[in-house]
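#lab-general

N.A. 3:47 PM
ok so I finally got the sequence cleaned up, no stray characters, all 70 residues accounted for. can someone with queue access submit it? mine expired

B.Y. 3:52 PM
send it over

N.A. 3:53 PM
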Amino acid sequence: MSLGTGGNTIAGAVGGIAGGSLLTSLIPMLSGAAGGMDIGALVGQLVGGGVSGAIVTAIVGLIMNRMKGA
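B.Y. 4:20 PM
back already:
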């Protein structure tokens, strides 16, 4: 399911940004609205962004591989 280095980077970044924004809006605690630097909120955003980036990369890779095989 590889898109190449550049494709994986772009798909992962887009998925990470979108996923981080979505998680922040769904779970307000992750926005760090309490003020100051909240390590829990930071970790939550990093994990959420990483997972969503990986999911988007896998989905795009799967679609691209199916299109090549068709």
